[in-house]
Amino acid sequence: MTDETAAVAPTWAGAEVPEPFARFVERVNEIDDIGRSLSVLGWDREVNTPPGGVEARVTQMVTLGSFLHRMATSDEFGEALEGAASAIVGLDMPEAHALVRVVRREFEQQRAIGTELERRISEVSGRAHTVWIGAREADDFQAFRPWLEQIVELGREIADRLGFGSEPYDALLDRFEIGATTDWVAGILDRSKAALVPLREAIEDRVEGGHVSIDDSVLHRDFPVEAQKVFARYLAEAVGYDLDRGHIGTAVHPFATSFGQGDCRITTRWYPDYLNASVFGTLHECGHAMYEQGTDARFARTPLAGGTSSGIHESQSRMIENIVGRSLGFWRAHYPALVEAFPTSLGDVPLEDFHRAINAVKPSLIRVEADELTYNLHIVLRFELERALVRGDLAVADLPTAWNDGMRDLLGITPPTDREGVLQDVHWTAPMFGYFPTYALGNLYAAQLHEAACASDPAISEGLSAGRVAPLLAWLRENVHRPGASLTPAELIARATGSALDPEAFTRYATEKFTAVYGLNR
Ligand code: ZN
């Protein structure tokens, strides 16, 4: 080896790294490039592909996906990973250790599940999805039942392969929220439920007693789609979504996707007679995309450049959609622009009435239509049921009854049909058990992060009450976005807020907000 080659030490994330680690990063970069390319194909399928092109596109994605899977689970990659891990033992390089931890976790999970089970999961899920569409349309749970039984079986098989602590659901949950256990989530959601159900009942008493009524019909007036598209860009800029590194497209089921820190896209849907889908859908997806835009540029082309968990990701979307986007302060600043965009529909609606309309609490049968207060109760129901299914405490045949009983207890209403009940969500057409709770965790994390941010600097709440999101965003960039996946969700929350996740922050937030909206203290 000559002196010249020895002088050029490889670097990563701004620091010199040992040779084996640098070789590992090269493999990680290739895998990341292919994964993001696959995401581009997926985005294009949802947003641009004509019906005639869907089949070919799916084939292309399957081919590229299995190529990626082989690469990411190969012995060769495993050796590179372990070589890198040994080369950094004892070195003070927290980010390098984080990269090894994140990649190893994914590698071990994929190897444990294995290609044969992976193939069965996608076959059964694909067919279950088709059956579910028909069953939901026909309101026929019996048609879907045998498929759901297979899905539950697959969920148990995944848990067995991954290994778990006290119950199989632990393994499934941990796939989406690293480090979360079933008991921990149950404890958090029980405390949240104990506070939210009485609050919901107090609001209903006040409405039934005729003391307050909120008219949200103004949101169902005429809203021309072209004007909604223009306003979505205005909103995106108002909350700090960087459109030079972003893009707003149209999709039936809105989502955010990222092809790198410089290209984080969102999609929205537009209804000419309902404003909320585009306004709050846009704000929600902006929150996801802003998280991705804010991760440390040094982590580019690695899995550290992205959210650390589904729950933390959801905290960012819920923060922008609800805590910022349904606040009086935000609309005090931006309502005039909305009225200007839709003068005939909103010209006669005062700001306060609009603010109450977008915060109306109304127990709904459908989760995706739920208001901010009752949303988590829909998640509590799904968490309790899927935990019981996976444990074997609840048979799939008894699920519709258990669903309806739970709806009555939590929301005070009973679905008249399974279509509006147990058949409503797409999630159970695949063994995605453990994903639902991350929606609720997201709301709870969001409230705690917001509280910590406001406590750290009065400029943040002053900004928000005048519709300025920038001070909050600066705090989120530093405490949530920049670390990407280099911190676990528990580390991130502890560092940013000084304590572990505590559902009381959301209870305080919701109590204060809805007490004001519904005049509960009067
Ligand atoms: Zn989301």
Question: Could you please describe the fold and organization of this structure?
Answer:
- A hairpin with a 2-residue loop joins strand 1 (11-12) and strand 2.
- The N and C termini lie far apart (82 Å).
- The strands form 2 sheets. Strands 3-5-4 form a 3-stranded mixed beta sheet, sandwiched between helices. Strands 1-2 form a two-stranded antiparallel ribbon.
- The chain has helices at 3-7, 19-47, 54-72, 75-87, 94-138, 141-162, 168-176, 182-208, 225-239, 276-293, 310-324, 328-341, 343-346, 351-357, 375-391, 399-411, 436-456, 458-465, 470-481, 489-497, 504-518, and strands spanning 11-12, 15-16, 246-250, 256-258, 264-268.
- Helix 10 (276-293) crosses helix 11.
- With 522 residues, the chain is mainly alpha-helical.
- It binds zinc ion.
What is the compact description of this entry?
With 522 residues, the protein is mostly helical.
Low-confidence stretches: none
* Count of alpha/pi helices: 21
Q: What is the H-and-E element order?
A: HEEHHHHHHHHEEEHHHHHHHHHHHH
Which geometry do the CA atoms define? globular
Head-to-tail CA distance between termini: 82 Å
Adjacency order of strands in the biggest sheet: 3-5-4
Average pLDDT value? Answer: 96
Largest sheet: 3 strands, mixed
Q: Into which percentage range does the β-strand content fall?
A: under 5%
Radius of gyration: 24 Å
How many β strands by DSSP?
5
Main structural class: mainly alpha
What share of the residues lie within helices? 55-70%
Present as ligands are:
zinc ion
